[in-house]
């Protein structure tokens, strides 16, 4: 019984070795590697496209939520004060408009650069300026919401605001 099992294992090991030697020849292996590289590049491009789409949708969602909140506040404020406060119904600029205005002062820097994970010196000032401008122009947005728009933590936005406006809280 042991001899037959041992013989079966030896045949199995020989078959595995032969397959490995044949795979090492490179003929089928290089074609498979090329196919995998191609699939990887397609998936990477698809992932980047989806990440850009998600960022756009998150910014649009934040903008829409802020507008809805502002409208709700205006409606509630209108009931309480009979519409005396006209500043509440004022149309707020979109995030895209605010960022575009700021980036006009920084040629060569795009929105993708601002929200990227890169920490290049040339990107820090425009990124901080954009965060500060959104914070000041859109008081209806919370720090976590602004952080999500810029793909940063809300404490980063808070640090930028404190550093640039001189808050000592």
UniProtKB/TrEMBL annotation:
SMART domains, A to Z: Bac_DnaA_C (SM00760)
InterPro entries in UniProt: DnaA_C, Trp_repressor/repl_initiator
Superkingdom of origin: Bacteria
Gene Ontology terms describing biological process: DNA replication initiation; regulation of DNA replication
Residues annotated as domain Chromosomal replication initiator DnaA C-terminal: 94-164
Entries under Pfam families matching the protein: Bac_DnaA_C
A molecular function GO annotation: ATP binding
Name of protein: Chromosomal replication initiator DnaA
Highest classification ranks of the organism: Bacteria, Pseudomonadati, Pseudomonadota, Alphaproteobacteria, Hyphomicrobiales
């Amino acid at each position: 019984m042991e001899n037959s099992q041992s013989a079966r294992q030896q045949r199995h090991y020989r078959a595995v070795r032969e397959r490995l030697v044949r795979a090492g020849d490179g003929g089928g292996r290089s074609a498979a590697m090329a196919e995998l590289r191609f699939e990887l590049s397609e998936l990477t491009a698809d992932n980047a496209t989806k990440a850009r789409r998600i960022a756009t949708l998150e910014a649009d969602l934040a903008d829409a939520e802020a507008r809805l909140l502002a409208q709700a506040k205006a409606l509630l404020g209108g009931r309480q004060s009979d519409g005396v406060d006209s500043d509440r119904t004022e149309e707020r600029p979109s995030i895209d408009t605010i960022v575009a205005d700021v980036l006009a002062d920084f040629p060569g820097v795009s929105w993708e650069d601002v929200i990227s994970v890169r920490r290049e010196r040339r990107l820090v000032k425009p990124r901080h300026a954009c965060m500060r401008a959104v914070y000041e122009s859109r008081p209806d947005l919370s720090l976590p919401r602004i952080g999500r728009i810029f793909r940063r933590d809300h404490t980063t936005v808070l640090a930028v605001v404190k550093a640039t406006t001189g808050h000592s809280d």
